[in-house]
Amino acid sequence: MPDKTTPTDVVELILDDHRRMEDLFRQMRSVEAERADALREFADLLIAHAHAEEAEVYPALRRYRDIDDDEVEHGVEEHEDGNKALLALLEVNDVGSDSWDEKLEKLVEAVSHHTDEEERTILNGARENVAMERREELGTAFTKERDKHIKAGCGSIDSVRRLVKA
Ligand SMILES: [Fe+2]
Ligand SMILES: [Fe+2]
């Protein structure tokens, strides 16, 4: 069982992942040596995070009358846009090329648009309507699901290709 020092509120956990994604964007823009490693971590995190939201968080939140189903549905569509933009960057061979910069900025745009909207709609809906006890249960389930996908290497180029094709 998580102790009191481990935050398990699903809203905070999702926000922490979004902030980590922003850090990794900065590393992917920075000196070339760091870019490939940062992309590897980012790819696993983005895919695992979205899987865990769709498996454990979105379905639970839909059940609340005051959380808009359309917002949740829209979140899933935006995950797909993020996956496509991620695949385009994974397919760039030279991390120092103009193509890298171009595909990276498209990925930043797609993901930032989604995290911004998710924070304003879905997560605020959760803050206002879901009791902390339930948010903590969802947080535990979210982390478990996310970590399972990260361990399985869900951000590999083959796995992202399969996801985009599906
Ligand atoms: Fe998210
Ligand atoms: Fe999301």
UniProtKB/TrEMBL annotation:
Hemerythrin-like domain location: 10-123
InterPro entries with a match to the protein in the record: Hemerythrin-like (IPR012312)
Record Pfam families: Hemerythrin (PF01814)
Record protein name field: Hemerythrin domain-containing protein
Gene source species: Streptomyces durmitorensis
